[in-house]
Specification:
Helix content: 55-70%
Number of strands: 4
Number of helices: 10
Radius of gyration: 17 Å
Largest sheet: 4 strands, antiparallel
Structural class: alpha+beta
Length: about 210
C-alpha cells in the first residue's frame, strides 16, 4: 500500500491525539511521548508499505490503516501495555472531535436505503478472498425490522496483528465498535462473538434505538 494519500492523511489527523494519550493514559512524560511518536511514525510507514493495495470498492482500508497506526505505537513503546490499558488508550486516541463528528454524520445515515445497499455490496465483494488484510462479511437484516448485523468470517485486523506479533491485544481494537456506535447516536451495538477471542465469527449488530423504530 502506498504511504501517500489516505495513510498519510490519517497520520496527520490522529498522531497528535495518539501522542497526547501516551501521557494521559500511560503516564509517559513529554519527551518520552515525543520519542515514541517519532519511532512510531517510521514504523507506521514500514507497516503501510508492507500491505497490499486494496480494491477500489473495499470500504475497509481505513480500518487496516488505523490498526497499522496503533500497532506502530505499541511496537515503539518501551513496555508493551496489557489489553485493558490499550483499550482505553485506543478509544481516547481515536475519538477526537473530528472523529465524533464523523460518527454522528454516519449515524444519521444508518438504516437508509443507501446504507443497506452499501452493506449488501460489501458482503458480495468478499475482498478477503483476494486480500488477507481485508474482510469477508455476511449481511443479515433482523426479521423484526430492528436493525441488521454484519457477520465477519475473515478479519484483516486479525491478520495484521498476528503479523506484528500483537494478536493478544486485538480485542482493544474490537472494543472501538461500541464506542463509535455510541458516538453515532442512532444505534445500540450488540455482539456475541469475535474472532480475536476465539469465536466462530465477529458479529457487528446494529439495533435501532427506540426513537428510530417509531
Amino acid at each position: 500500500m502506498k504511504y501517500l494519500g489516505m495513510p498519510m492523511g490519517m497520520w496527520a489527523l490522529f498522531a497528535k491525539s495518539f501522542r497526547k494519550q501516551l501521557r494521559d493514559v500511560f503516564g509517559y512524560d513529554a519527551e518520552a511521548a515525543k520519542i515514541i511518536t517519532e519511532k512510531a511514525k517510521r514504523k507506521y510507514g514500514e507497516i503501510i508499505r508492507g500491505l497490499p493495495e486494496f480494491e477500489k470498492a473495499d470500504r475497509f482500508r481505513m480500518n487496516i490503516v488505523n490498526c497499522a497506526m496503533l500497532g506502530a505505537f505499541v511496537l515503539s513503546m518501551p513496555k508493551c501495555p496489557d489489553v485493558e490499558w490499550l483499550t482505553e488508550y485506543y478509544a481516547k486516541a481515536m475519538m477526537t472531535r473530528p472523529m465524533r463528528w464523523f460518527c454522528c454524520k454516519s449515524g444519521k445515515k444508518k438504516f437508509t436505503e443507501k446504507d443497506i445497499a452499501g452493506m449488501k455490496a460489501t458482503a458480495a465483494l468478499r475482498a478477503a478472498d483476494r486480500n488477507p488484510y481485508s474482510w469477508n462479511m455476511d449481511f443479515y437484516e433482523y426479521p423484526d425490522g430492528s436493525g441488521y448485523e454484519g457477520r465477519f468470517t475473515k478479519c484483516g485486523i486479525c491478520t495484521l496483528m498476528k503479523r506484528l506479533g500483537l494478536y493478544d491485544l486485538t480485542p482493544a481494537l474490537c472494543r472501538l465498535d461500541y464506542t463509535m456506535s455510541e458516538a453515532g447516536g442512532a444505534t445500540e451495538f450488540v455482539r456475541a462473538y469475535t474472532l480475536a477471542s476465539g469465536g466462530p465469527y465477529c458479529d457487528c449488530g446494529y439495533k435501532k434505538k427506540a426513537r428510530e423504530q417509531q
